[in-house]
Amino acid sequence: MCVNYITVSRQICFDWFRTPIEEDQDWRENDIYKDRKAPFIIHDDQGQRKALVGSYGFVPQRHRPLKKLTKEEQEKFDRAVQRAMEMGKPLPKPKRIRMDTMNARAEEVGSKLNYKRFWLAQQLCIVPALNVFEPNWETGAHERWAIELGSKEPIGLPGMWRTWQEEDGSITNAFTHFTLNADHHPLLRRFHRPGEEKRGVAILRREHYDDWLGSKNPEFARALIELLPAEELSSFAAPKEESSHEEVDDSGDTESPVFKQVSLF
């Protein structure tokens, strides 16, 4: 499962994906993790490509179900609320369950509660990236590896998006992208912990971008979700930089030798 990737700049989105990103569509980082904002591409009502910005993960943290607390946990939370009220501080927010929805299993997307409605409606998108990161355990320890196209061209990840209504009445976006079983893939089976199912990130072929975005048929779209052959991919160790302050295991940054991203904007 991919939990981290490098997004593209506005210039690359325009040059490669033929999609301008409007000035009011803003995000802060190019190193994308769960719940961080990043651009994704859809078709507008006229069938033209349009860029939006949303949270990486179909169900953002603030919308996940509340965690069921034990008696002791509830008492501790109640005390924290009482202290905050007495001190005039913001009230602590209740804990929510852990949900990783950055990736959707393509084999199950038509049956899973979080995804089914949007898959049947074909609310599809493309997630533009320079590379994705996966954990390699071949040495017996976790090593962060980058996967990219052998051509060094940007990647279009087949994805799906939805909107959320926030407490203040505003509407925000969220997105996920698809993975497939990679147990027998010569390259992608090298990643993830020993004994776990190997999952690989699906990548769209460039000539299929508009077919994907314009799909109205789930079975047609499913046929476009594929793992590229190993000979079309490149992978390499990409340890996170010492200066990184990320708390997520798979973090760091790389840049493509061809599509060098000097500035996010």
UniProtKB/TrEMBL annotation:
Query: InterPro entries annotated for this entry?
Result: SRAP, SRAP-like
Q: Which residues form a coiled coil?
A: none
User: Which region ranges are annotated with the description Disordered?
Assistant: 236-265
Tell me which UniProt keywords the record has, alphabetically.
Covalent protein-DNA linkage, DNA damage, DNA-binding, Hydrolase, Lyase, Protease
DNA-binding recorded as keyword: yes
- The EC number on file is 3.4.-.-
The answer to whether the entry has keyword Lyase is: yes
Family according to the record: Belongs to the SOS response-associated peptidase family.
What's the protein called, per UniProt? Abasic site processing protein
The species is Duganella levis
